[in-house]
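Subject: Protein entry, chain in single-letter code together with its fold tokens

Category: Structural biology, sequence-to-fold work with a learned token vocabulary.

Notation: Tokens come from a learned vocabulary of local backbone shapes, not from coordinates.

Start of record: The labelled sequence and token lines come straight after this line.
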Amino acid sequence: MAGTSEGETVAQMSASTFDFGTVAERYDQWYKSAEGAMYDRLEKQAIARLLPHNGRGGELLDVGCGTGHWARFFTKRGFTVTGIDTSPSMIDVARGKRIPRASFALADAHELPFESGRFDVTAAITTLEFVRDQDVVLREMIRCTRQPGGLVLVGVLNALAPINRRRKAARKPTYKEARFFPPREVKALLARFGQTRVTSAALVPQTPWLLPLAPLTDALGRWLHLPYGALLVARVCL
């Protein structure tokens, strides 16, 4: 694992409210559990519904890419992905996966090192919860996205979701430092930048033996516009 300089450590501490280097090696274990795999499946389906359907892909910036979990998903959807994160340990794990058409680099989302309009799509999935200034990060994402015609995707942990309320109550280090968002706040953050769509995803039963019914409860939640899914997914068309 690559070492870090004092400057890198300070930058990471100032940019993020949680040091993800402490969990990098075990971060993906959640997706291997039955519960984690179900949430992952439903959340990816929700993000896929917001992506362009022309099949041509394009250049995508993955802000707060972590271990490259979402970068792999985006490449499978046809995109060439550039992932950035402030955690050297997370970047090491992402690079170790050797994901085709994906590259990873250390960078601060508050000051993205890319020219304006570079990317067709800019995404931040479970990133805004941990940044120092959500407004600055969003403005940087907008700046780096092609205009007109580009797309900004955001996925944030829903403050109204039962699973997230339980996570907060447990005060585990990762979630204790996170800022969860209600749907109305996500809409207010994004609507000023362009045409915005916000939906709730991954409405999963909290009783373990009902887990196989999650695709049905999730679909019902979408039909009824229930705001209680674990992840709020949003799209801004520029």
User: Anything to note?
Assistant: Residues 34-50 form the longest helix (17 residues).
